[in-house]
Specification:
Oligomer: single chain
CATH topology of the largest domain: pyruvate-formate lyase- activating enzyme
CATH class of the largest domain: Alpha Beta
Bound molecules: S-adenosyl-L-homocysteine, FE3-S4 cluster
Strand order of the largest sheet: 2-1-3-4-5-6
Number of domains: 3
CATH architecture of the largest domain: Alpha-Beta Horseshoe
Radius of gyration: 23 Å
Structural class: alpha/beta
Number of strands: 21
Largest sheet: 6 strands, parallel
CATH superfamily of the largest domain: tm_1862 like domain
Length: about 475
């Protein structure tokens, strides 16, 4: 890792230096899927810059094109395959361009990707990024280059990511890689390998750098952050506490939590530190215990509700979002109704909703029939989305007349004289700019809302950053 000293270079400086090098080959990288992929692409850029590459945002200028891919649903893969058609066209006019597929699709499909997509020169799985310069050498000499080995200990702990977040306000810090949960429907354990935690020292060091670069918020990342475990000495709550104490001036978020592993100790730590945001993403997937069992999630409807009750008790002002899958194998109308009733009962502030998509090789693909017709999956999903829209609107209406500390992230897409930012509860608030700038924490009173956004105006721009909320 670039150790934080007076000579420490920011991400912008590193890119500037890289792009000033004469005749450096140029890399373009495109990222799909989860936040972990965004963080991984930042590692890849760091590795490539250190190996003499320049970086561009325009693929027409690139010598090397990397696509960091997602396999979580078939739709994600199809989108990426469509995108490859654009690069195929580019390669026809410039055959020397090297195309590399990174991430989960590489790991899932391996050499098949090269057979199926004729333009692909490099296939690199999530644990192979240190070997990218070597893979490029092989590709340049006309061979196809593959590295899809998964590792038990790779955490890229010593690599300083080159941050690409446009607003410069919020940064990701990966704390644990892989997933051992093996939910029956999920391809992630196969594409990202076994769980392994990163040392607390390198996490804290990276956060120092992030603050030096001017960021105001970090998100600690993992497929299941609650399984964080450093040598049986430090668990996730302990890490969270360390990070919160060491960095009182920034906001701290984390994702994703897992119902079985989400402890009261984490909740109490959140309650103890005002700089830890009061927001939890706790996927439930289905409201039916029968389906949850078939999903191999390891909890029931009742034990999930018990976790929600613990959140409400220890953190009354915490917002909660979730993930829901519609139309899993053998899901009946009654099972679906249980999902609907759980949503009505808990009233999530937000939900990410998906139609079940068979992932080859998973337990569900091997053992159960994907027996819910597409039309039924669609109907159930629409019902879930419509209900959630109503619940989100209700939740937002409750915020009218309340005042929140908001970290400004950027200009509103709809209107250039408005900013948007988030409150501690991760709700997006849009308001007129007035004496403020991106990265400021401002106090905003909510005056109106839609189901997706709160609307308001600034009541105070704080000179001293206060994060109590
Ligand atoms: N723990 C991970 C989950 C990754 S997958 C995290 O960090 O978020 C994200 C969500 O995608 C899951 O919670 C689930 O709701 C959905 N998902 C995963 N596999 C799926 C599949 N085969 N079909 C439909 N949705 C799926
Ligand atoms: Fe997937 Fe379950 Fe892990 S949804 S990422 S196997 S927690």
């Amino acid at each position: 890792m670039q150790i934080y000293t007076k000579e420490y270079l920011t991400s912008i400086q590193r890119i500037e230096q890289a792009n000033n090098r004469k005749d450096a080959p140029i890399l373009y990288i495109e990222t799909y899927g989860c936040q972990m992929n965004v963080a991984d692409s930042e590692l890849v850029i760091s590795i490539m810059i250190d190996n003499g590459y320049a970086i561009t945002d325009d693929f027409n200028l690139a010598d090397v094109i990397f696509i960091n891919t997602c396999s979580v649903r078939d739709k994600a893969e199809r989108k990426i395959r469509n995108r490859l058609k654009v690069f195929k066209f580019l390669k026809r006019s410039r055959p020397s361009v090297i195309v590399g597929i990174l991430g989960c699709m590489s790991e899932r499909l391996k050499e098949k990707l090269i057979e199926e997509e004729k333009i692909v020169d490099i296939v690199a799985g999530p644990d192979s990024y240190r070997s990218l310069p070597q893979l490029l050498k092989e590709a340049e000499s006309g061979q196809t280059a593959i590295n899809v080995l998964l590792s038990r200990d790779e955490t890229y702990a010593d690599i300083s990511p080159v941050r690409r977040d446009k607003s410069g306000v919020s940064a990701y810090v990966s704390i644990i890689r892989g997933c051992d949960n093996m939910c029956a429907f999920c391809v992630v354990p196969f594409t990202r390998g076994r769980e392994r935690s990163r040392s607390p020292e390198t996490i804290l060091e990276e956060i120092k750098q992030i603050i030096y670069e001017g960021y105001k918020e970090i998100t600690l990342l993992g497929q299941n952050v609650d399984k964080y475990n450093w040598n049986n000495e430090l668990n996730f709550a302990g890490l969270l506490r360390k990070v919160a104490i060491a960095n009182p001036e920034i906001r701290i978020r984390f994702a994703t939590s897992y119902p079985n592993n989400f402890t009261d100790e984490v909740l109490k730590t959140m309650a103890d530190y005002s700089n830890i945001c009061k927001y939890i993403h706790l996927p439930f997937q289905s409201g039916s215990s029968k389906i949850l069992k078939k999903m191999r999630r390891g909890y029931t409807r009742e034990s999930y509700i018990e976790r929600i009750n613990a959140i409400r008790k220890i953190l009354p002002d915490c917002s909660i979002s979730t993930d829901i899958i519609a139309g899993y194998c053998s899901e009946t109308d009654e099972d679906h109704e249980q999902t609907i009733s759980l949503m009505k009962n808990i009233k999530f502030d937000y939900a990410y909703t998906f139609k079940y998509s068979v992932r080859p090789g998973t337990y569900a693909a091997r053992n159960y029939k994907d027996d819910i017709p597409e039309r039924t999956k669609g109907k159930r999903l629409r019902e879930i989305i419509n209900l959630q829209t109503k619940i989100s609107l209700e939740s937002n209406k409750k915020d009218i007349n309340k005042t929140f500390y908001v970290l400004i992230e950027g200009k509103s897409k709809r209107s250039s004289n408005r900013y948007f930012g988030r409150n501690s509860q991760n709700k997006v608030i849009v308001f007129p700019k007035i004496n403020s700038k991106i990265g400021d924490i401002v106090r905003v009173v909510v005056t109106n809302c839609t189901s997706a956004t709160l609307l308001g105006h600034i009541v105070k721009v704080d000179d001293i950053i206060k994060l109590i909320n």
